[in-house]
Design a protein that fits this description.
single chain; alpha/beta; Rossmann fold; 2 domains; 6-stranded mixed beta sheet; 4-stranded parallel beta sheet; elongated; binds 2-acetamido-2-deoxy-beta-D-glucopyranose; Fucosyltransferase; cell wall biogenesis/degradation; transferase
């Protein structure tokens, strides 16, 4: 564990080729470390852990025999983890929550983000309804019974292969297949969350076409089964052709587009009559590229159920997203290393998403000014002192804020960083400005770029305050939706010059950019 040679690449502060990244603290427990220093540390950890363990035995009701061992093991790991966190930012107060999660968890190492997310993201005071708990549990049971390669799945698949349209349900399993559009990651997450809610409402099993990167980015969300569509699925070769559309619409399978430029015909998907027709269909293949979740709320046959599942409609994506989207260990490594290197120590973390490219120098400086004006006006960022250059060693207030900038072009980041480098703040606060990616990462599908995009969205969702150039971005949508944040949104500048109000607070934490693009069934009036 050589830490001396830190890479200057901001996106990957500690270069590490281990694919189980994010678990470097766990690695310390392995016996293959050679240096004496590590051994000494290990010894100290084990001793401390045994003290903790004895304490836990004394202070608690005696645990039953079979959990003693796993509990002890969990505590050793926990102790190391806490040590790392204590020395690396004030997250220690969250210890107990993690304790609870880890002790009951199993197979933690396959997806660390599921168990550690609460250390990085603020938790909202809202809990999901017990009815949602119940529905998710029920869904998990269904998915386990009907998931890929189960007996029920094989039976249903055989029927499809032999085009056996006879009535009589063989297995009671029905599916909705989410096709991977290879669109921007944010859009895919929004449409996938919508498809999952649709599956939940219609008692279908959601299967995800993995595409090139989905399995690399997301852990399996449902226990002891897989949500990925098996490679050898028979209709797969037709997914991108027109023939599916012609063939479809029988009790075996149906193919539907739920996309932004839907024709009127396709909008009928949200009508009750269409839903009744689909009820018998075993395989529903869904091509969708956007957030159609709000349209489900306006489908009258789902209304009652949705009211029970989400007493606060505003939080549907927040709860579904937190349930579904867990970064794989390799992405979790990108997220946690970045977080600890640049963000953890700051008292407040401010995320800024800039979706505007740098073209046109005029507009460029205006936008930087507007972001700073918005920040200072609403006390998100301190003003700078341009006349008196008081060195910060003279200042008593040593609070710090970290500004995390997500934008495709580096110019905005450099300008904002320079403002806080070249001038002291009037409050004396120390402002550090960071930006992980210098690439147009959204444009390509190569795996590292998707990983970085996911890491960036996740890091934005971990901030305390989010500011965006507009709400019309799937990155912003997912970031504030997952983080449960109501972002500040810049007002559109007129003639390149912004006036007050420089920005306004969004009313909702739900993704909103795409909702107006969709229509409910009521639109069909011809
Ligand atoms: C389902 O089919 C697959 C291969 O087609 C087979 O490997 C698997 O064992 C089958 N599952 C059951 C439960 O029979
Ligand atoms: C998943 O499988 C493991 C081992 O096969 C088992 O111990 C565990 O209880 C299962 N979990 C659920 C939720 O069924
Ligand atoms: C923007 O420019 C147009 C024409 O150049 C002008 O009519 C308008 O008043 C300007 N708006 C503002 C807010 O300055």
């Amino acid at each position: 564990m050589k830490r001396g040679k830190k890479s200057s690449d901001a996106g990957d502060p500690v270069t590490n080729s281990d694919t189980r990244t994010g678990s470097s603290e766990l690695d310390a427990m392995r016996p293959n470390l050679s240096s004496m220093k590590s051994m000494g540390l290990l010894l100290a950890v084990l001793m401390a852990a045994s003290v903790m363990f004895s304490l836990s035995v004394v202070l608690r009701d005696p645990p039953s025999d079979d959990v003693v061992e796993t509990e002890a093991a969990s505590r050793v790991i926990l102790f190391r983890f806490h040590q790392a966190i204590d020395s690396d930012g004030g997250l220690s107060e969250k210890k107990e929550q993690l304790d609870d999660v880890l002790v009951h968890g199993f197979d933690k190492e396959s997806c660390l983000s599921k168990y550690e997310a609460s250390l990085y993201r603020k938790e909202l005071p809202f809990k999901q309804s017990s009815y949602l708990d119940y529905r998710l549990k029920k869904y998990e049971d269904l998915h386990r019974r009907c998931g890929p390669f189960t007996r029920s799945y094989n039976l249903t698949l055989d029927k499809l292969k032999s085009r056996d349209r006879s009535d009589g349900e063989v297995s009671g399993c029905r599916y909705v297949i989410w096709l991977n559009s290879n669109d921007e990651l944010g859009n895919r997450m929004l449409s996938l969350a919508s498809a999952f809610l649709y599956a939940l409402l219609t008692n279908r099993v959601l299967l995800v076409e993995p595409g090139v990167d989905m399995a690399d980015l997301f852990c399996e969300p449902f226990p002891n089964t897989s949500w990925f569509l098996p490679l050898e699925f028979p209709l797969k070769s037709q997914f991108n052709g027109q023939s599916l559309l012609h063939d479809s619409g029988n009790s075996l399978f149906a193919y539907r587009h739920v996309v932004r430029d839907s024709s009127d015909q396709q909008k009928l998907f949200f009508c009750d009559e269409s839903q009744v027709l689909l009820e018998e269909t075993q395989w529903l293949i869904l091509k969708t590229d956007s957030f159609f979740l709000p349209s489900l709320f306006s489908t009258s046959s789902f209304e009652q159920e949705l009211e029970k599942i989400f007493p606060e409609k505003e939080m549907a994506f927040y709860f579904l997203g937190q349930y579904l989207f867990h970064p794989t260990n390799v992405v979790w490594g990108l997220i946690t290393r970045y977080y600890h290197a640049y963000l953890a120590r700051a008292e407040q973390k401010i995320g800024i998403y800039i979706g505007v490219s740098e073209s046109g120098n005029d507009q460029f400086q205006h936008l930087v000014d507007q972001i700073l004006a918005c920040g200072t006006k609403h006390k998100l960022l301190p003003e700078v002192e341009k006349q008196r250059h008081l060195p910060s060693s003279q200042v008593l207030n040593r609070k710090s804020k970290a500004v995390f900038i997500s934008s495709a072009s580096p110019g905005y980041f450099e300008s904002i960083r320079d403002v806080y480098w070249e001038n002291p703040t009037v409050t004396g606060e120390i402002i550090s400005v960071h930006k992980p990616s210098h690439k147009e990462f959204q444009k390509t599908q190569r795996n590292m770029e998707s990983r970085r995009a996911w890491a960036e969205i996740y890091l934005l969702s971990c901030t305390d305050v989010l500011v965006g150039t507009s709400l019309w971005s799937s990155v912003m949508d997912v970031a504030h939706g997952l983080g449960g944040l109501k972002p500040w949104v810049l007002n559109k500048a007129e003639n390149g010059t912004a006036y007050e109000p420089y920005c306004v607070r969004a009313r909702s934490m739900e993704p909103c950019s795409q909702t107006t693009l969709f229509h409910s069934c009521k639109v069909k009036d011809e």
